Structures are given as structure tokens and as C-alpha cells.
């Protein structure tokens, strides 16, 4: 089990059925939902943003 301080988290990234936690020193991949993190971090600031990209337009 890994414990990560909220102060160390830069952002969370959804990757299919997994979430990547980007911190100051590492990237941790876990099988969890962003909704679960939103509920866990209710006491602090949490912004859930979805960015969609069209690969045809990006090329």
C-alpha cells in the first residue's frame, strides 16, 4: 500500500480503467475511479475536468 500526501499530488489522469496519480517525484497507476478520488478529497479543492481530443484534427 502506498500513501500519498494531497500536497504532493499535481494532477490525476484517467487511463481506461485506471487512474494515474502524478506527484512531484513519481507517477502511480491504480485501479480506481476519479469519482472515488473526488469523494476522498471533498475536504480540499478538487476539480474534475474532461479534455477530449480528436486525433484526426491533432495530426
From TrEMBL:
Molecular-function GO terms, alphabetical:
DNA binding
The HTH LytTR-type domain covers 1-46
Which PROSITE patterns would you find in this protein's record? HTH_LYTTR (PS50930)
Please indicate which superkingdom the organism of origin belongs to: Bacteria
InterPro entries the UniProt entry points to: LytTR_DNA-bd_dom (IPR007492)
Entry-linked Gene3D superfamilies: LytTr DNA-binding domain
Q: What is this protein called?
A: HTH LytTR-type domain-containing protein
* Source organism of this protein record: Syntrophaceticus schinkii
Amino acid at each position: 500500500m502506498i500513501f500519498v500526501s494531497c500536497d504532493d499530488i499535481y494532477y490525476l489522469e484517467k487511463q481506461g480503467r485506471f487512474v494515474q496519480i502524478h506527484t512531484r517525484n513519481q507517477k502511480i497507476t491504480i485501479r480506481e475511479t476519479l469519482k472515488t478520488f473526488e469523494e476522498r478529497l471533498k475536504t480540499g479543492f478538487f476539480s474534475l475536468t474532461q479534455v477530449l481530443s480528436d486525433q484526426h484534427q491533432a495530426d
